[in-house]
Design a protein that fits this description.
mainly beta; Jelly Rolls; three-stranded antiparallel β-sheet; 2 helices; Cupin; RmlC-like_jellyroll; RmlC_Cupin_sf
């Protein structure tokens, strides 16, 4: 890459719809995907993305920043962590997640999301 590459989530390269309750917009910069996920109130990975992924838990590694709302991460080992606005988080594969409260959770994801919520 040379120079500067700028893209807007207002005109994403791709939008991936969840089964319900949200979507993730993808822009590709320097050959890497960056996602802006909007998880609506009531969203849960196991209900809204598992049918797309076809796995028991989310097997994607996330490196994310919470813009708004709250999300609770449930790891396979039983540990849990809430993520709130202004916090950055690294999430290993093998988790479920759910929105907490009545506000949409917006996350920017710089992780290994090339296949996240991708159909077929």
């Amino acid at each position: 890459m040379t120079g500067i590459e700028v893209k807007s989530f207002d005109k994403p390269d791709e939008t991936r719809m969840f089964e319900s309750k949200g979507y993730v917009d993808i822009v590709t910069l320097a050959g890497r995907p960056v996602g802006r996920a909007v998880f609506e109130p009531g969203w849960r990975w196991s209900a809204d993305v598992r049918p797309i992924a076809g796995t028991e838990r989310c097997e994607v590694s996330h490196l994310a920043y919470c813009v708004s709302g709250r999300i609770r991460i449930h790891m396979a080992d039983g540990s849990e962590q809430d993520v709130t606005p202004g916090e950055a988080v690294a999430i290993a594969p093998g988790h479920d997640a759910e929105v907490i409260g009545d506000e949409a959770c917006v996350m920017l994801d710089f992780g290994e999301i090339s296949q996240y919520a991708r159909r077929g």
